[in-house]
């Protein structure tokens, strides 16, 4: 993910409003939790039965969430999941094609420790990213209901280099919004600014119109820790929105008690 | 100029119109005039009532395969290439890969060429893995037996119960980078060879799908068993290097499997599964033998078996692979073939760099590499002593 300047809407919201401490994992208090995500200086790949190994004094509750990525073919859904999970991708050579369509549903698990503001203990978010190839979704009817089962959040992706994917966004957003579903819009390939077909002002117009924040993701080389530092803002933002939703649903909004759920 | 690079080149055409559907690898590009000529000569033969299968030129080996009068596959392989049935097998597996992803109904007959070209792009991962030099599915990655101390029977029983809970009788528990080191339900083991080779190519790690997702739900069409009705292939990685594959119908959903069934059935044996996981074997370790027995493949160095001759270690793997490709389709007990002809016990090839010796039995096949110039008479006793050394382990 490329570094963004101070105009980045991800930073425009006052950090003190956030229910989770931003950047906590990369700060000194989060260090033991960060180490549990790494193995031999690379992001650890967890199987379905595994969790980050933490010593008993540091044990924390695990909160599982299911997130579904939606977007046109080639917009970068699988690439985004790989970047967030820290999975190595085959380096692109002349022989390797740029884009392989995902054949079916791929579910990747990302563990993300976070510190809620004012709480004594951190919590461990277990984020299941479900990614399905666009062609397969259209061809096989059973895949979309399988993805929507017990869903917590939808990530709607568009690419800065593909105008059509941006223009489909309103239709996608209205089709997928549901009760209690967190919706997040992510713009991929934000580092390819010379080829951008979507201008910044269009994105800001969308943000103003819909009242949502658009996250940005772009590729850049680097090792495991660098990749984690770039994935952190997106994962923090996702964790924050899921946490907020759960707090409101439980009737416990930040700082207020006994408020009935809206 | 294709055919001179190290990797073979696969062309796919619609038979009726001669329109190219894809070419893997895409670079270097095969000139359209060459594609047309190759297709034309195949059609010319067909019009004369002759099926053109293979041709050899000074720089390349060519192989043709026609499927259902609808799809033609042409393979250009740099020579020297594996001789004999290897090229035809590659074509067969490539068509099988296309059927696996798209289903037979999309391929035979071809209705819309442009749409088919777009859809065929999904197969490129599988086909590239097939065409990679040394990556052919016939042999696959070096396979190791289950590590000692793995409670095979207990895990087999657990696999059967897990498959039953998932409403299927096709399940496979695979370990550490090779489908041969695997436990299978009875019906999975009874799948036709082409289907199980294609499924094995998809199994992580080292499969054609790449690392990353811990759970996958892929619609697949088994080319031999059900080319028109899709099954769901569920790939679940329990711990890195150990996973379960299931072929299911519409139920259970992936969400239910991942959240309920996997922790329920495989959670209790987590430590045993971890013990079974091992890193993928290093590429082309020195090997001197290959044993195929009871559906499992083992390879390695025979202890005290003497040197393998003047072959450097990295070439031994290729020598074994070539020998296997030459002999397995005819003689291998699991190759779905006739089995060794009655009375045949041993066959061998004598080459300047090594002597390859193959022991044939109804239930197993043993390939050995021996120093060049080994006389013929001691071959059988040598092979028998190597076999007893191996089966004693």
Compute the number of helices of chain A: 9
- How many beta-strand runs of chain A? 8
Major beta sheet summary of chain B: 5 strands, antiparallel
Count of discrete domains of chain A: 1
- The end-to-end span of chain A amounts to 36 Å
What's the story with the biggest beta sheet of chain A?
6 strands, mixed
The largest inter-chain interface, given as chain pair and residues per side, is: A-B, 38 and 44 residues
Instruction: Specify the structural class of chain A.
Output: alpha/beta
Cα-atom Rg of chain B, whole angstroms? 22 Å
- Give the proportion of residues in helices of chain B: 25-40%
Mean pLDDT of chain A: 80
The fraction of residues assigned to DSSP E strands of chain B is 25-35%
Write structural notes for this entry.
Chain A: Residues 1-27 are annotated as: Disordered. The complex is a heterodimer of chains A (262) and B (393). Chain A is of the alpha/beta class and 262 residues long. Chain A has a single domain (20-47, 59-90, 100-249), classed as P-loop containing nucleotide triphosphate hydrolases (Rossmann fold). Chain A is built from nine helices and eight strands. Chain A has helices spanning 9-12, 31-37, 77-85, 134-139, 143-148, 163-167, 169-176, 200-210, 224-249, and strands at 38-39, 42-43, 62-70, 105-114, 123-132, 153-159, 182-188, 214-216. In chain A, the strands form two sheets. Chain A has a six-stranded mixed sheet, with helices on both faces. Chain A has a two-stranded antiparallel ribbon with strand order 1-2. Chain A is globular, with a radius of gyration of 18 Å. In chain A, 36% of the residues are buried. With 393 residues, chain B is α+β, with helices and mostly antiparallel strands. Chain B is 34% helix and 25% strand. Chain B has a five-stranded antiparallel sheet with strand order 2-1-5-4-3, with helices on both faces. Chain B has a five-stranded antiparallel sheet with strand order 7-6-10-9-8. Chain B has a five-stranded antiparallel sheet with strand order 12-11-15-14-13, sandwiched between helices. In chain B, strand 14 and strand 15 (364-370) form a beta hairpin. In chain B, helix 2 (85-102) packs antiparallel against helix 5. The termini of chain B are far apart. The interface between A and B is large, with 38 and 44 residues. Strand 4 of chain A pairs antiparallel with strand 8 (215-222) of chain B, so a sheet runs across the interface.
